[in-house]
Amino acid sequence: MGKWRYGVILDAGSSGTRLHIYRWLNNARARQDAGAEDLHSLPRIETKKKWIKKSKPGISTFGDKAALVGKEHLAPLLAHAVEHIPEQEVENTPIFLLATAGMRLLPESQQKAVLQSICAYTRATTNFILPDCDLHIQVIPGDTEGLYGWIAANYLLGGFDQPDSHDHGKDHHTYGFLDMGGASAQIAFAPNQTETEKHAEDLKLLRMRTIDGAASEYKVFTTTWLGFGANQARERYVKELEDASPDAQELPDPCLPAGLRVKKNGDVIEPGSAEDEGVRSPLIGTGQWEECLRRTYPLLEKDVPCPNEPCLVNGAHVPTIDFDVNHFVGVSEYWHTTHEIFEMDKADKAYDLHTYQNRVLDFCSKDWTAIERGISKQSWGKKVDESTAAHACFKASWLINMLHNGIGIPRLGLEDVQHSGVNGTKEVIDKAKDKGFLDPFQPINKIHGTEVSWTLGKMVLYAASQIPPNTSTSSGSQTLDASNAVGFGTNTRAGVATAFQFSGGNPLNLPNDLTDNYDGPAGDDDGDWLDTLFHSNSSRRIPGFIFFMLILCLIVFLLCGRDRRTSFWRKIIPKRFRRTATRPVRRSGTFSKRRRGLASKLFPGSGSPSYERVLENGEEMEDLRLSPLPPEDFENFSDDSESSKAARTSGLATPQIQTKATPGTAQMYSDGFSPLAGPASGPVPAGMTPRLGLGLSQNAFEKSGLSSRSESKEKLTLAPNTFRVSRPGSPTKLRSPGILPVKEVVD
User: What's a BP term from Gene Ontology annotated to this protein (predicted)?
Assistant: First the structure.
């Protein structure tokens, strides 16, 4: 396993399933990189935009065809995960599919069938870690979803790792969390000290673990309101309209812009539909915003009995919220409803009820024709279409009622609230780690570029569970149970969790490499190879360093030049192991296309010795002597032969014309070297075969570098009708068949 750990979570919501990929450093590497302060922090979770993929519709639509959910719904999501996780890490990557409100509405038998089909398909088609289907593939209750969201929000805002920077007073440093989807809404917060002691049995004990293995515990209240999501609330609202006007051919809707006619589900009326033909009553917009706000209030069901005081909505118990220290952030519909239209040009503006109500009133008072013109001109941005605009007024009224009349968020801008008056622009988010949100409520979507999603909270909890507990903080025991494991359970006054839910099992027995040279697909490298070689204790450090040095030496060797390479090669290779070669004489008309290999180019000393070496070391001359030529072959190379003139080539076989020897030269015959006292002329003496001739004049030996050679014991001889051998680099040296013949030496 490499330095990165990966995790996959599929958020199976009511409208679709969204896949998220996360990664974090394994604990060994995280401890190595962490400073003294970072050791007391939670694991750092990372994600990327390209690691997210959504598939529609939701898995709840497969309730009566569970066998098809894998092939028709999960296949592209799983393929996306496999594509973006390093191949060697897939088998070390856990996968979770956690279903929410949509699946909660299905009968239990259909829920079970869909989940079993998902688990079987995932196990059959992938190698992800999936040891326990009941733990990894499940429908989670709404309060668990809210708890994960609370973890995600505080993790991104810094409420966990820098409590001193988020001191809200009364020894409180965390933020409340609000989430609203299509079917349900959640709330999660840590009550003040008084309420925590008073309602201990109503809280959840949450335990996480920091990088150094120390436990970090929080007591959190969380609950959910099923049916209080935006879509479910609208369905209840339309039913109220029908009950109020059962015989009406058209149902007047104050939450729709004036003049807009839609089906009861909000879709556009199509020609030939039941609504178009008068069979079913459509909704007709009246554009009465104040009436819309009044008609949505009863949906809170505040009149439902409250068996355990205090309660907020629908008779559900919630401890008293202290807004002096409980500052809430809202995601999902809380963000979209406040920002898609009404804060389009002020995306980072804090929520202000007075300003928000004025903008909603201005929009919802327009007739539908004017709104359509605004959509065509993109007055509210590119993302606002007719469907978004048609539902905007209802969602705004529902959000206002839920926030202020339901949860009790102070009416900022209308009431005198302590800590109000903060700017609330982007500066608030940027400086959240310095002073935090001081407004009672702030809608958010991303914090420092990361989406606030409950799936992140789940992965933070899982990553923390993979850190071995510090024995000094766990009573010296490494056994993981409800007393020291990461997860959550029912809190008691004694502080021991019951009905404990583990976050994903015990820490996996996987190797914790400190380094990893592979960081995902192509283009995702972090340059960690330097750390692997020089700054780690990895078992790969020494072999990697040796391999690196070998590559470095090879590069230096190749750059040092041919002559230095040859000299170096001859020094390290004994003479008896050097390979020598004798080049056969090529006959006239025969062209051998001998090509030099890579080894001979890089290590020239391993092939035939160079002519520089021959001239400097006469001992190797014997290795290069040519075999005697038969008389008939010798005649073919006569200077007077027409065929030789027509077919001259470069190399040793190229015939040369020399009509006269110059004084001071030597001739070489078959019986050895014979110095000449004066100019030589005439034919080759009988019985002597020419071996090797060098066409060098006396002046040539006077040049620098050649004078020492003329004093050698082996005096080189130049005989008529012999063949001239070139120095290295000369055009006559054998390189390729395309080199032109050397020029004849003419007296």
Answer: CTP metabolic process
Residue 185 assigned to a binding site:
yes
Q: Which of 286, 184, 306, 311 is nearest to 235 (CA)?
A: 184
Paired tokens of 364: 């919802």
φ/ψ of 311, rounded to 5, equals -130, 160
For 155-164, 204-213, 247-256, which range has the lowest pLDDT when averaged over its residues?
A: 155-164
Taking Cα atoms as reference points, which of 67, 47, 59 lies closest to residue 116? 67
Strands (E), 569-692: 666-669, 672-675
Residue 135 and residue 505 in contact, taking contact as beta carbons nearer than 8 Å: yes
The C-alpha torsion from 594 through 595 and 598 to 599, rounded to 10°, is 10
**Parallel, antiparallel, or unpaired: how do β-strands 446-447 and 441-443 relate?**
unpaired
DSSP 232: H
Cα gap 316→225, rounded to integer Å: 8
Q: Residue 184, annotated ligand binder?
A: yes
Closest CA to 83 of 526, 455, 520: 520
- The SS3 of residue 179 is strand
Q: Phi first, then psi: give them for residue 268, nearest 5 degrees.
A: -70, 140
Structure tokens, 687: 């019985």
Cα-based distances in Å from 330 to 152, 163, 342, 452, 638: 12, 21, 16, 9, 102
Q: Is 186 annotated as a binding residue?
A: yes
CA angle 101, 102, 106 (to 5 degrees): 110
Helix (H) or strand (E) holding 145: helix 142-157
The string of DSSP letters for 436-496 reads ---SSEEE-SEETTEE--HHHHHHHHHHHHTSPPPGGGTTT----STTTSSEEEE--TTS-
The dihedral over CA atoms of 420, 421, 427, 433, expressed in degrees to the nearest 10, equals: -30
Helix (H, G, I), strand (E, B) or coil at 276: coil
Distance between CA atoms of residues 713 and 425, nearest Å: 96
Catalytic (active-site) positions: 145
Please list, in sequence order, all residues whose beta carbon lies within 8 angstroms of the beta carbon of residue 511, skipping any fewer than 6 positions away: 1
Strands (DSSP E) along 670-731, which ranges?
A: 672-675
CA distance 718 to 295: 120
Q: Are 286 and 253 in contact (CB under 8 A)?
A: yes
How far apart CA 718 and CA 660 sit, in angstroms, is 10
Report whether 438 contacts 418 (CB < 8 A). no
Judge if pTM exceeds 0.70.
no
Report residue 509 as tokens: 């027995």
CA torsion, ordered 420, 426, 428, 433, to nearest 10 deg: 170
Q: What's the farthest any 2 CA atoms get from each other in the chain?
A: 139
CATH number of 1-140: 3.30.420.40
**Pick the residue with more confidence: 520 or 471?**
471
Where is pLDDT greater, at 167 or 734? 167
- CA atoms in the 13 A half-sphere facing the CB of 538: 26
Distance CA 632, CA 415 (A): 122
- The backbone torsions φ and ψ at residue 30, rounded to the nearest 5 degrees and listed phi first, read -65, -40
- Computed on alpha carbons and rounded to an integer, the radius of gyration of the chain in Å comes to 44
Give the start-to-end residue ranges of the domains of the chain: 1-140, 529-571, 576-710
Beta-bridged to residue 487, according to DSSP, are 207, 502
